Amino acid sequence: MADFHFIRPWFLLALLPVLLAVLSLLRREKAGSAWLGMIDAHLLKHLLVGDGKSSRIKPAHVLCVLWLVSVFALAGPSWRKQASPFSDDQTGLVLILKLSGSMEATDVQPSRLERAKFKIRDLLKMREGAASALIVYSGSAHLVMPLTKDDAIISTMAEGLTPAVMPSEGDALSEAILAAEKLLKEAGVSGSALVLADSVDPTQATELATVAADLPVHFLAIQSPQSPSDAGLMSAAKARGTELIVMSEIAEDVIRANDLAQSKMLAATNEDGSERWQDAGYFLLPFIVLGAGCWSRKGWRC
């Protein structure tokens, strides 16, 4: 609540009338109390201006509270930001899939490659409506699908991928990351990359620390959760200043990958000003309507 403030603070000036009304009520009630010491109560109720009812909650009290709540709502209390509904998600996620022979290992069922495809499909479902792309690499890197919001076509293209389609065996991860950076720049959007691989050549760590340095790159280890993480993957993640996401049997890994992509989206909206303060005044409307309903009672008047 450290960021609590009012979006339209000038409406708080409308509190002055309700303050005067409260002072008037207090003065009137004080006057009645003063006479109570000199005149019997059963006679005083006929002499004072009012309805003579003993109810502690009176229409004037409710009106003051409604005025106070209404002014508070109009002033626009706010303490957190939200993405503007008039702005599109202009960030992209480039999926970089390793397509070498080692990805056909069956230490995870049905195979490392098939499990990676499952993860891609699940991640795309979480990112529905956001732009994604797919790059594969082995001895060289190749673009399979440019940035698109059509999740189904990326999943379909990924289904048919096997190491046999690659021209050569190898570990051209740096080339794939450069291709991802170029893809995002040509599309004119910011974004990040997610590498899905079972290993990384440890000798690439130094190069990976500097290649496309401005592009956030995250890593999802496609290997058995019970196996120790690949040293090359750990070095690559450390070189890029990020964490290594360990593959899980449930969706924890995909959720984490999506969170990292979302953090990039929020950073981008902060930079371009498309994020705005959320107006919490709307949440007070039901209380205002409920209080106003008191005037539907017979004889209820100020």
TrEMBL record:
Q: Where is the VWFA domain?
A: 93-198
The residues that cross the membrane are 6-26, 60-79
Note the Gene3D superfamilies from the entry: von Willebrand factor, type A domain (3.40.50.410)
What the entry lists under InterPro entries is as follows:
UPF0353/GerABKA_families, VWF_A, vWFA_dom_sf
Its keywords, alphabetically, are:
Membrane, Transmembrane, Transmembrane helix
Q: Pfam families per the record? A: VWA_2
Keyword Transmembrane helix among record annotations: yes
Report the protein name in the record: VWFA domain-containing protein
Taxonomic path: Bacteria, Pseudomonadati, Verrucomicrobiota, Verrucomicrobiia, Verrucomicrobiales
